[in-house]
């Protein structure tokens, strides 16, 4: 029997309370490595339920221009996968409950070594990984390594994912499934809420995992609408933009607090 981890416990708690999950994304090292952990604590204080910590990469192909710039700023601050793990360890000194997912690309994991990555992630207090460019057909070995350490493997589904691939992906996925509500890169376009509803209902025929909706969520109104038929909303580009536009670390925290607080209030209404 699979042992529960923080992600499972958080979704169980939210469901029992009849509340939607607010999943927030920032890039580790964006705004300075020394400011990432304070920003993570601010996300939680303002109402975030789960944190996706972006692992900076030189070619973040799934990201729109806003998050690409966040990766560039983080790399300029010498952020890396190893430093991300150190930041999670530091975050855990004060927060032992909020789930943290490392969201990134396969290259840094391959460079570190998948088994070493899985060990280091577990030891740092990471709860799961979302590897954007790792297809289901190649995800088996990492999946087994994560599962053996009670870590969850989060996967993306899109509006164009075929039933055959939905079945393959949900067969591997754990923790929750991230439904990409738009075709294209992060931060693009406008939500087609009818399409989101229909696709989520269809995906529920394949899995009992929580379904969280991301891409195109910019404020409380869009978060509430997008998550109406799912289990939560994922918010990223608007937060990365707020960090990038801030004049200093204090302003970045204030910007993040205001955005997350407004979205949390809307989700709870």
What percent of the residues sit in helical stretches (DSSP H or I)? Answer: 40-55%
The ordered string of helix (H) and strand (E) elements is HEHEHHEHHEHEHEHEHEHH
Shape: globular
Instruction: Please identify which CATH superfamily we are dealing with.
Output: Aldolase class I
Proper CATH architecture = Alpha-Beta Barrel
End-to-end distance: 36 Å
The helix/strand class is alpha/beta
- What's the β-strand tally? 8
Strand content: 5-15%
CATH topology: TIM Barrel
Which helices and strands, and how do they pair?
Blueprint: H1 6-17, E1 21-27, H2 33-46, E2 50-54, H3 65-76, H4 81-92, E3 100-104, H5 106-112, H6 114-124, E4 128-131, H7 140-148, E5 152-157, H8 163-172, E6 177-180, H9 193-203, E7 211-214, H10 220-227, E8 232-235, H11 237-245, H12 249-268
Parallel strand pairs: 1-2, 1-8, 2-3, 3-4, 4-5, 5-6, 6-7, 7-8
Helix pairs in contact: 2-4, 2-12, 3-11, 4-6, 5-6, 10-12, 11-12
């Amino acid at each position: 029997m699979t042992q529960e981890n923080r992600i499972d416990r958080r979704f169980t708690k939210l469901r029992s309370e009849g509340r939607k999950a607010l999943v927030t994304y920032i890039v580790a090292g964006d705004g300075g490595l020394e400011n990432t952990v304070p920003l993570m604590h601010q996300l939680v204080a303002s109402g975030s339920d789960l944190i996706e910590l972006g692992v900076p990469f030189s070619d973040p192909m799934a990201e729109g221009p806003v998050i690409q710039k966040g990766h560039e700023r983080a790399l300029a601050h010498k952020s890396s996968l190893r430093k991300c793990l150190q930041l999670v360890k530091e975050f855990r000194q004060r927060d032992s409950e909020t789930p943290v997912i490392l969201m990134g690309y396969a290259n840094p994991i391959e460079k570190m070594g998948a088994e070493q990555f899985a060990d280091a992630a577990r030891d740092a207090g990471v709860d799961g990984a979302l590897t954007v460019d790792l297809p289901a057909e190649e995800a088996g070995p990492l999946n087994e390594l994560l599962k053996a350490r009670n870590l969850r493997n989060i996967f993306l589904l899109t509006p164009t994912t075929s039933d055959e691939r939905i079945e393959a992906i949900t067969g591997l996925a754990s923790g929750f499934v991230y439904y990409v509500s738009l075709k294209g890169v992060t931060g693009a376009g406008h939500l087609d809420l009818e399409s989101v509803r229909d696709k989520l209902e269809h995906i529920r025929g394949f899995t009992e995992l929580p379904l969280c909706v991301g891409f195109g969520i910019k404020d409380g109104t869009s978060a509430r609408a997008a998550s109406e038929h799912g289990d939560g909303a994922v918010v990223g580009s608007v937060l990365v933009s707020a960090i990038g536009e801030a004049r200093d670390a204090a302003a970045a925290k204030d910007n993040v607090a205001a955005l997350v607080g407004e979205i949390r209030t809307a989700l709870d209404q």
